[in-house]
Amino acid sequence: MYERENNLPIHTNPFPEILDDTTYTRILKDPNYWISQSLEDKIIQQISLSFDISGFLYHVGTEALITNAYDLLPLDDSRIDLLEMIYRLPILIGRLTRVVYLNVKPVSAKHVKFIFVYLPEYQDKWYDAVFFQGMLNGLAVLFALKEFKIRMTKTKLFGIHVSHKELGEEIEFGSDANEYELEWNDETLYLSRSQLTKETVSSRHRVMVTSRSETELEEMSIVDVKDVVGKSRELAIENRDLEAAVEVLKSFKQELEKKQLSMAKDLRLAKNIQKGLIPEIIPDWNGIQFWTGFIPMQEVSGDYYDYFPYHTDKLGVAVCDVSGHGVPAAFITALSKMLFSNHKKPKPSETFKLINRELLDLVKQQGYTTCVYLLINSDYKVAYSIAGHPRPILFRHKTGKAEVCEGEGTFLGMFPDAGDTYRDLYLQLEPGDKLFVYTDGLTEAENDEGKAFGETRLLKLIEQNANVSIQETVEFIMNQHREFTMGTDPMDDITLLGLQLSPKLEEFHQIKKEGDLFYQKKDYHSAVLAYEKAHQILPRELNTQLTYGKALAYSGNFEKAISMLESYNKFKTNHFKSHAILGYCYYRMELYEKAELEWKKAYSINDSNLSNLYNMAQLYRKMNQKQKMKEVIDKMKHIEATYLHILPLEKKWESLPDESN
Fold it and tell me: Among 157, 404, 410, 545, which is most buried by a count of CB atoms within 10 Å?
């Protein structure tokens, strides 16, 4: 089984560090060849690293009983029943091992105890417990039992490898021996050696006869050990769940349920953490709009995308595809975010070289990632580099054509000399141009006929959406992809990131400039009208969102201002003014708890702003929270004791009733 599961050459020794080739060959060919318990233990432990062997051991125990039962039968044609066979079972145990001996204690005519005792110098093994119970199952198979129970009642083992509920409902752990019970309700069946010769039954060996009578040939049938074992073995090979060993395999159910609950909890946590790492929306930047389609195959994803503002007029954008799936891949995505944030170099290839070295140190070649990294300049010149990733696609607005960009390079985190393969390539964006970066899960996904979505189809879909926004283009492609793969299971994470230099960029700048002039003159009503038009052109441009939200607040449109400022704060800009004004809007709408939360956020960003503290003091006065109001006033005194608003606040504080009243 080990050879088959690991696709090994037949009869080639897979354990050279444990035993020599001669010993391995003898084990396979000679069922009477003896090995030490220590060697047996090493072999079993080695095999168990590859797959669960409990079911196989159970099956082998069953097979061992069936194949050896013939030698326990009387030499003449007399017949024995199950109880007599049980009494002879210690002889078989003595033939198989010198480590364990068996005591049989009958409880009744159809109820027997089996006590397996290890010699003092040997240690009990979990796999023996499974093997012995499999042997008892072999008795049930041989005597065609239909109503029977096999259970372990005592064991020396603590924390046995398999769940004890399937070995027995109530097991006494830490006992002096391993004890089992067998009960059955079937009518007595007798077994004897066959007197059939080879001429009568050709090519048969070890043939036994069963009968319902001890003396008469009633309901006689022939049992060929070779056939029984062969069928049993076929069942074990063809049915991966090993139905012949279901009693043991079921033992993992409760353990698996516990692990699944624990894993589900861990996955939810990992999902929430990764949700904080991967931006839901990338804000508009300098007239460039972004939109993403992102479909993780599991709770957590190996795909990763992010944006990285530079101190200068540049924006970095990365799309990565980590090897593997699930939590290990998600771990590398978290490392990628940290590394891209730490290495903001003037050239993408330089960033790749540093990240490759650090990933090698951190991951130790246990994972890698492909990537495309874009560095967008304020003049819309894009420098990019590729690390083993599908090449970006550029759509030219003037020509209406989409083309695959140049570039190649080795993935990150696997080869020390990969830095030599990274190249910087350049393209110039014009108004209306679109650029698409995606992971191979998009193009390699197949429909129910086994046909891939493909790069050619993606290029055509991009060209079909020449005159719509980047958001509409990405969503159209993702919908087409969903329809194409309908009825199939996802085979990989899918990411599509698109960006577009707005074709209305000049119009936006003109309208925004008008709005800024109205805002400076405190003509907030006119500023709102201008900012509304600018916002429609670039709805995720952060500077416009903030000034638009402020103008709405100052013009008294608090509800719409709240919507705009909440949208702005989703980008985690940590801007003092956005939280301060949002708190003011909540305060004016008498949503005091929300106002308190926003002003606290503003305070955490700037704890010396007296206006914000003054607002908080007024809020606590409204809420009749005298102690909190006093604490805020004390903070104001600590910052500037002569602040002119402190004295009026103290008088208002004194007029408040005590909170205990």
Answer: 545
